[in-house]
Fold these 3 entries.
Entry 1:
Amino acid sequence: MLSPVAGSAIVVRQSSRAPLTAAQPSARCSGCAMRHLCMPQGLPTEELPKLEALICAARKVRRGEALYRSGDRFDSLYAVRSGSLKTLIVNRDGREQITGLRLAGDALGLDGIATDVHAFSAVALEDSSICTLPYAALKTLCRESGTMQDRLHRLMGDQFNQEASQMMVLGSLTAEERVAAFLLDVSSRNWQRGYSQAEFRLRMSREDMGSYLGITLETVSRILSRFQKRGLIDAQGKLIRICDIEGLQTV
Amino acid sequence: MLSPVAGSAIVVRQSSRAPLTAAQPSARCSGCAMRHLCMPQGLPTEELPKLEALICAARKVRRGEALYRSGDRFDSLYAVRSGSLKTLIVNRDGREQITGLRLAGDALGLDGIATDVHAFSAVALEDSSICTLPYAALKTLCRESGTMQDRLHRLMGDQFNQEASQMMVLGSLTAEERVAAFLLDVSSRNWQRGYSQAEFRLRMSREDMGSYLGITLETVSRILSRFQKRGLIDAQGKLIRICDIEGLQTV
DNA sequence: CGAATAGTTGAGGACTCTCAATCGGTGTGG
DNA sequence: CCACACCGATTGAGAGTCCTCAACTATTCG
């Protein structure tokens, strides 16, 4: 159980364990996010300037604000430079369902590719900084460079697999297993970013977590308390410390 | 409720209502599947021969056989020419979860793009015929043609949105709503293919349906019976007739 | 500092699951 | 051609998980 189908980190992979310190000096994409797509490593050097020139513009989004909304016209992909966002769908009767949590380094906006209109909304969970990648320019670049093309494809594929993994969570795990899987996922993604895997500030509310996991906020809360009593975690509001990773992994 | 985030048909779209008759004479892709990607419409004519030459080779898969398995090396995308398949993931403890149903015209294999290894398995629900699209050739073609590039991207985006829609189903609908949503989805996809939206043969077992919908096979069966008593459907094993679409839509 | 929001905990009930028996088709062999 | 076995589907009864409603506490932000 608790089996993500594939590694859950979307963009950041084997590459880095180097800490992404809070202060990223440049407003460019150099230190940012979406390494696979955005970063020079492995790119023929002549393509570097193109990438730099065309692609990454920074943008700030404040806590609670939307980077884009469901129904907005799609014209750019995004990468989280710092901060975090949630993606969500609003269904007909107005209820919203969280579809994902995007941390620094994650890509955002793929939900608009199919129809040129965003299917999700993306809302900042804290003040965040976002790289913008104009999709048209990106496509052009991908036509010129097979490396870039590959990266974009992999990026899309990763998102696809990550969603599949979440389908698995929603389709076959109990509430406890879902919460455990979620904590482990965040922990692992934190670790891949060079932060602590044991302790992190989870800026989603209990309600958001519940919505993401297909359970109610009360159940989330109860389960966190239960985990705490069992010594698996130490949660104080949004600050979560994982005390027993293996314990969490075995439900 | 019952709100797919985007149209659920992946490849086949506004284009066709023309019946895709059972006998497709050519072994090529002309009548097949994956129109957006595969078919000539809108493509500069000089690219047509390339596409025909490079891309579509047909292949048969018999009921119960796997087109590919989780863990297999990824090198091609596929399009269902005729028949139907289910995609599934096997998690650590050996349980499998159905992740999708692919009908004629649907694309298949995207689950391998991220890692060069298939995350899903694809198993035929009936004897089926499959177009193979070597991924390397496809990439080359997409670098030469913006139209092809766009189509491939949209194809991937569609799959992404379809999964998101399923996450929504799994995350926020009751068992009855899930079954109704599933029937309506299949009905609509059938209709888009030029077949009846009211009557179709659903080749998944109750167990498969349950797995796909995150409920047990018994619950699926009970709910189908309930729907039948209410006059919403008329189900005889795998043959399903929808009597009251609007009724199904309102739960 | 205080109002509003977020989180915790409890009790009762609803929904879905589990276990089990039965029914029904399909294919095989006598 | 029929009997039987086998697999899938149906239906029932009881149990368990999770939800709903509600009260209360803690935290956050103006």
Entry 2:
Amino acid sequence: MDSPESSPPASTSNASETAPVEDSPVFSYISNLSPLQPVKSSSVTQGFPGLNSPPLVFASPQLIPHKRAQFSRTSFDKLQVRLEDSKNSVTTDKGHGEQNIQLNTSIAASTEKSSDSNSSVDELIQSPSGSCEQVLEDIVNVDSSDPNFSFDSTIKKSERNDQLANAPTCSTETVENFRHELNSGITGELAVTHPFTCKETEDAQTELILINASASEKAMGQGDEVSVNCSTVGTELPANNAVVYRSEDNFMTELQNAKTGQAAPLDQSSHLLTGSKAFQNRGVRRRCLQFENAQHNIISNRLAQDTSDGEKPKTRFLETPLMPIDGKLYPQNTLNSSIKLPKPSGFGLHLNSILNTVQAGSAATINVKTAQWDCVSATTDGNTHETHACASDGSSLSLATNVVEPDNNSVTLNSNSNQSILGNKRNTEKGSGLEGTNNLSPKKKRMNTTESDDGYKRCNCKRSKCLKLYCDCFAAGIYCADDCSCQECFNRPDYEETVIETRQKIESRDPFAFAPRVVQHIIEQSPSVSRGEDRSNFTPASARHKKGCKCKKSMCLKKYCECYQANVGCSDGCRCEGCKNVFGQKGEYGMAKVFLAGEDSQETTDDLSAEKCEIDASRSHTYHIEFVNPNNLTPLTPAFQFPNHEKDGSAAWFPSGKHFQSPESGLTYASPYAMSSASHNISANNAVIPESSKESRHGNGNTVDELSAARSRSSLVWQGSPITPMAEFSGSKVPQEDVFEFGLSNTVQDDTPEILKDSPTPLNTVKANSPNRKRVSPPHGQPHEHTSSSSADLRIARKFILKAVPSFPPLTPCIDSKTLAVQPDSSPENRDDNK
DNA sequence: GAGTTTGAAACT
DNA sequence: CAGTTTCAAACTC
Ligand SMILES: [Zn+2]
Ligand SMILES: [Zn+2]
Ligand SMILES: [Zn+2]
Ligand SMILES: [Zn+2]
Ligand SMILES: [Zn+2]
Ligand SMILES: [Zn+2]
């Protein structure tokens, strides 16, 4: 009632208020128009300070889409790819056509380290020209829904869907085709946008990120790849390279074709995109599985098809709408080059947020949205080439995205480096335990009450109207579902404007509010593995929360602790008292964990914690360090920015795409939403579909197992380098458990330079095994971890994990794509070398 | 399912 | 930035 806010909270400005009533497009429009956003200009400011980096990490979507459905189905988006710089864009031509589409993107970013973590962000953002940093803007957007894309300077965006064609980028034809296809077959839901930004920073560590997306339907095949070249980027310009892809199934395909056609690896950097279709709903879990199986490519179609195909399930995310507004926002941002967008929100939003964008010109960003989602995985093998983009000059990126379902949001991106992102908020799931169990079973189901099918949790908010971060749904960037037991809920598509405004408001305070909270640093692993498995990479061990917990009574042994809930150990950023986090106590992280491969690895668990620190410290040098600087952690810096904006916003999503490296360490963030969203769908518009399903949101049960689920959910994995730890796992399989946990959340990998320094892979070994185990088995506590955790993790999906990978990639920072491409795999070598 | 505990989010 | 309040999930019973 009336309580204070009677109505929807007004978000930010109130003025605008968006009452629910206002859903109408008009409002949206207005909203968009309104300068509010600028709020933080930060976005701009921060974000683009000039340059590069993206300020926004998450960016919420500014625009509001009206409904996704419309979009998606109707027309998709198109994909555009442009490369500005030297070349132009690549277009796709034709193609092969396979059904699968994959995108790989690798990005190399340099990580910089700025001094402080915190600052780092700012720095990034601010740095205007980025002095050192260049920003490349590469944007990749894949939206199905959104028509608009914006690129920076160079790039233009197509404005609307229709217009899209115009764009220079990809061949219009292709796009159109996509549309058709999409329309027809696909629901169109997927949109993936990844914003990436590459920056070079001083040192330039660059990170690469690869994302692969495969379409489910199509098949596995992977086959197609698309590569785009970016040339270098100019330093300043952000825009230089922008790539936008829209993927949809069809879309993807075509792209592929095109890609192939053109394919080229172009110059310095090339991008590969692989898109797969997204699946909608359900699938999350399944996706995961599939994911694994396919590794990157494959995604199960079913999901997509099933759900997606025709119907849209409900999505939590954005179903709604996007607002018409779009244009405006976009244009501005886009056009100008950037962006200006007020809002940065970036991470997933419900809605789609739109994001804003940004871009600023400078920074390079790539956005990927995925609407429906699927999973993203990187693929590599085949493609391998991946590329890298580097920024240096140009930066190239490769993204591969698979979308998975929204459900969990899992998106996995693999970067060579391996970063993953976890979702924002909590995992959520309550039932984790169950799930774990369930995982395997296909059916399973469901879980607890809390969760819904899709995997998302359902909230029970009574006084927050689901417009505050207290609400898990809202925090995750998704709309409340029917299953939610919330009261006076405004987190619904009908109130999209309100939701968006509120988001923006929140973001204005904390740009990373919707960003993934967990970052992983992973170590690289063997290349081969990595690719395929990416997901596996998760390493709980390496992952940590950005903000850290402040537990006083739970000793970080219960889910009250966000770190624990996310299945990650506490880091220096945590202010917990009496930390006994099974995944790692505070000190450890900072220290660097070392796992020795052989030696210590096993120990990991408990021992590790206490001892680790010590050990680590000492060894760390020797062995490896995982992760991240403590500093990084916390702050994480996220770097994301999102550029986008758009209405659809989608774009943003991935904002992260950007992978940002953290300046400091080079972490990368993925946008949470992105990830999550991705899952949700948010991505682009966010559409999230969260659930996918139609059915229920959550879970569906299905299939897949936990792992998959987990993966999917969270997982966005970026493969940066080849690293993937998985190797050990090898295969597909990844330990379930392990995976799960991690998987749950999205992960982003970070590269950490530091790591590089040392060792190569501690994690691998250890992690592979240990991580999970540690947790799990353990001694301590683990309570349920295995299972539950996994499940939990899944939930976490929302969260993202970032992994930092030091990986070698970095080594190359940026570098060329080619090199990278090759190298990545070689990672091992690198390691050795590094070592 | 009600009630308690908990720590993040929000607010001051 | 710290202290307090609010909040909903996690947990307990
Ligand atoms: Zn709620
Ligand atoms: Zn809800
Ligand atoms: Zn609600
Ligand atoms: Zn804690
Ligand atoms: Zn903690
Ligand atoms: Zn702790």
Entry 3:
Amino acid sequence: MGYICDFCCEQPSIVYCRSDAACLCLSCDQSVHSANALSKRHLRTPLCGRCNFQPAFVRCAEERVSLCQNCDLMGHSTSTSNLTHRRETVNSYSGCPSSAELSSIWLFFSQSPSAGESTCEQELREMSINENVERNSWCPIENTISQNDNGVAEVNHDRNVNVDSRSTWDGSSNPELGSAPQFLHQPAGTTDTSLTKLSCPQTKYAGVCEDDLYDDFNMDEFDLDLEKYEELFGVTLNHSEEILENGQMDSLFGTKAMSVTDSYCQGAVAAEDSSPGLVNGIQPAFSNAASADSMLSSKTDSILYFTARQDHSSFSFSGHTGESNGGDYQDCGASSMLLMGQPSWCPPSAEGSFPSASRSDAVMRYKEKKKTRKFEKRVRYASRKERADVRKRVKGRFVKAGGAYDYDPLNPTRSC
DNA sequence: TACGACTTCTTCACCACAGTAAGAT
DNA sequence: ACATCTTACTGTGGTGAAGAAGTCG
């Protein structure tokens, strides 16, 4: 990573793609991520305006600069005056948004330039994006950002979450939670059912976010900053726990284990009812995509699992590092899903409030989707894939060009 | 409870061929 | 040192076989 675009090596880099582990200028970002459906799903984040190295996760309104976690901590924890700076989370995006669409994601993108803003952001504003690039996958209709009563921007979106939620907070509220700003301005008792996954904690019942259950869930959306988690809960990472694999999920769902989404929502319900302070402390640790950006940039290969002890008195984490890449954990759905039983912060009453019919429905949908889910592998050579995609086959095997075939990918209904 | 039969699920080899790397000329 | 040619190897996706795992009587 560096200040120059990793792809063209000419333009200054503007955004960071975690899946590609690359810093890109906007033009290359467009061309690279319009290549295929997989690349369109890569989440990108603007680069830190200070170090130009790490993906930014927060924007300081006073300094008008986007900052990574480290720079934010450096800049806002050392001075008491800086501590009160109002900060906003920086949205990630996927697909191929136009400059106008980026404006809606990053509000500062449309603000007037100022001397104080970073070079990156000035260039971001000045650069134009090739509007001819196909950008079907980015659906601004499904992703609208609105302001709630508290002035906190919300992202309403349908099934595809392309934009992380945006919120504001000031460093004085709780410096310890600096890496996790979501919902800190959200009154604990408010309920906004228009919010979906990222806003799940605000929903009254877990069923509200049912449609998203298991489906679009991945580490990009479920962000867990382990270090912060340790700080928050004082747990120690255990690297030797067993991995809960996909095949085990069915039985788990049917018994004691719950999906993170479940626990997440139920925890929020509990927090609404009893302990607003608790949910404020918990939610950000799970919902801050930007902190995951920072984390994954340095711990890119970590796939995290944790299991809950049945006694609810403690839980342990598992961190497995392998040769996987960003795309692996990003896209593999359930395999990257964190599984856990009822967390220690979730009182038993929450689970009891979950309608059994909804759960069974959710499990059924999960199983169906699991069947049809394509666990995408990383395609290293797109050209080879293109050829393979059009190559005729006999019983799945490639046949010589011009030879008899029983399956033509270009015309599946026709065979000879 | 143990066992066999059956079903369901998972893993892997197979195929052709364009592209790449390494070595030879 | 450089260019050209040859050879070996790689990696794509759909299918079926084989084995593992689960279910039922």
